[in-house]
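Deliverable D4.2, example record:
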Amino acid sequence: MKHQFRRNGENAVVRTDKGLVRGYEYDGLVLFKGIPYAQAKRFHAPEETAPWEGVLDACSYGYVCPLMTNDQPRGELYVPHRFWPMDENCQNLNIWTPGLDDEKRPVLVWLHGGGYSAGSAIEHIAYDGANMSREGNAVVVSINHRLNLLGYFDLSDFGEEYENSGNAGGDDIIAALRWIRKNIAAFGGDPENVTVFGQSGGGAKVTTLLQSPEADGLFAKGIIMSGVIGPVLADAAGSGKEMAEAILAEMGLTTIRELETADYAAMARAYLKIRPKLAAEGKYTGCCPHPNAHYVGEPVTHGFRKESSGIPLMIGSVFGEFTSFQPMPGEWKTMSEAQQRGAVTAAWGGEAAEALIPLFLEAYPERRITDLLKLDYIFRMPEIRYIAERSKLNEKTWSYLFNMDQPIDGGNTPWHCSDIPYVFRNIDLVEYPHGDGADEGLAERIQEEAFRAVISFAAKGDPNGAGLPEWKASEPGKERTLILDGKTRVQENHDHRLMDALAGYLEAIEERARQNRGNIQH
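Output generated by the structure prediction step:
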């Protein structure tokens, strides 16, 4: 393929509300990187950037938020990363658009994963929005925002100026959406048709926006990918006063004002030192949204805000999530049925195996019995409850499951993040869909199904019409799940009996797993 690139003094220039920005043209798109959408002092609400003179260069990705620990490159074949310069001045966004015109294309705003503590807008290689923008005729935006202590540290007991410091990262996202509403028309997008979508922590941030009154009217739809995680990303409730005082004492400081300008790395080290004690005592440890007047709290406990009831949602996860990363015996794919049953019994105990294997085969008749040991429940159980509650509000809640195994390490169940390249139409940017024995045609088909469902949903608030089987929205008591795999289909409550039964055995299963790990270590 012959690539086409163009940048000169006149092309790819857009006037925003603060001044001119210049990007570049590449392969039929116009790209802008690192555009500042806000600025902020540490622990304070974001403010609008000052206007600038001349033309701002927008051809380089902006800073990403500093992390609390040094990233360790590993597992890159499963989840390929990009590492980037870090700085607290990280309120910036990137745009891919097919044209700087008045076409009013749907706008998709990507919220990155990494919980509320890590990650960035460009962290995963497959976050690249070019194919989604080009093939979907959509404007794609990805944003950076404050994380960890910088974005989610409640200091409200120390003065009104810190009233919402526990949600500063969420305020950054809202500031980005405000910028998009003001400016995206100049980039060929429709400010009235904005879809926020994200995976893992990014999916959780979609929920946070639904529960934040100041986000009302700034987006029309949401897609939550592996982002309903129950207690894994629970609200950071309570007061941050004790945590702040412990950090100050550890650093030899006396006031929050001093903490505002203290060395970030030193603050992070102090936090990591004092956090275990607070966590063991069930006290506030920050780094997640803080319920208050600006954020009403996660919805399964606190209820969905009625003001968000008109917003359609697509919600889903993948078959294995974190469990797919766990090692299995080398022969697990060639075991006889009796051996597979024995493996499950050894891992989970006889009573659990006898009860759960029939229900698993009922839910997943295409799978091996040993796949039960790879089945996710950390995401899926709270997701079922979330969808049930959300579907009480409207008929605009669609459920999906990414169920396609990947040809890596002899074949593996889909893991956390494995669906991202498919949704972005970027499977050619990563290695694992093309491994030994890969069904390239199937991978292309699943990519097209996932991608077209997202684009259809972003365009009209309904994922149907994308070459998929008829996919009705869920309703109370009827979760209609699109299962994406070799036999893509829609099933009703396909795994509810399995998950209900599994919940009754979880304590025993997890205790047995701890014992098995202890035996291996010794």
